[in-house]
TrEMBL record:
<protein>
    <submittedName>
        <fullName>Ribosomal protein S13</fullName>
    </submittedName>
</protein>
<dbReference type="GO" id="GO:0005739">
    <property type="term" value="C:mitochondrion"/>
</dbReference>
<dbReference type="InterPro" id="IPR027437">
    <property type="entry name" value="Rbsml_uS13_C"/>
</dbReference>
<dbReference type="GO" id="GO:0015935">
    <property type="term" value="C:small ribosomal subunit"/>
</dbReference>
<dbReference type="InterPro" id="IPR001892">
    <property type="entry name" value="Ribosomal_uS13"/>
</dbReference>
<dbReference type="Pfam" id="PF00416">
    <property type="entry name" value="Ribosomal_S13"/>
</dbReference>
<dbReference type="GO" id="GO:0003735">
    <property type="term" value="F:structural constituent of ribosome"/>
</dbReference>
<dbReference type="InterPro" id="IPR010979">
    <property type="entry name" value="Ribosomal_uS13-like_H2TH"/>
</dbReference>
<comment type="similarity">
    <text>Belongs to the universal ribosomal protein uS13 family.</text>
</comment>
<keyword id="KW-0687">Ribonucleoprotein</keyword>
<keyword id="KW-0689">Ribosomal protein</keyword>
<keyword id="KW-0496">Mitochondrion</keyword>
<dbReference type="GO" id="GO:0006412">
    <property type="term" value="P:translation"/>
</dbReference>
<dbReference type="GO" id="GO:0003723">
    <property type="term" value="F:RNA binding"/>
</dbReference>
């Protein structure tokens, strides 16, 4: 098993499918990253060495993809901004949290 950006990728899965476990990456983006790194669709996680994963992280940073904690933080700050300006969507978030109590 390989750990990348805080997620454990299973060895038996294909690379482009296993990378979708990373929060913020969808199938299209993972296929794009695999094509950039010349990783075939049939390649499995266990077939790759550590250099590919280092290149993968660098490629994510180069393409300015927001993933994991940064994306969660941005999402949270957007919701708090909606709540602060008291727009309809922000009010709905407030009502949702009040109903949970």
């Amino acid at each position: 098993m390989v750990q990348i950006l805080g997620n454990t990728l299973e060895n038996k899965k294909k690379v482009y499918i296993a990378l979708t476990k990373i929060y913020g990456l969808n199938k299209y983006q993972t296929l794009f990253l695999c094509n950039k790194l010349n990783i075939g669709k049939d390649c499995k996680v266990k077939d790759l060495n550590q250099n590919y994963f280092v290149k993968l992280i660098k490629l994510i940073e180069q393409n300015n993809l927001i993933v994991e904690n940064n994306l969660r933080q941005k999402y949270r700050s957007d919701i708090t901004n909606l709540i602060n300006i008291k727009c309809y969507r922000g009010i709905r978030h407030i009502q949702k949290t009040l109903n949970r109590r």
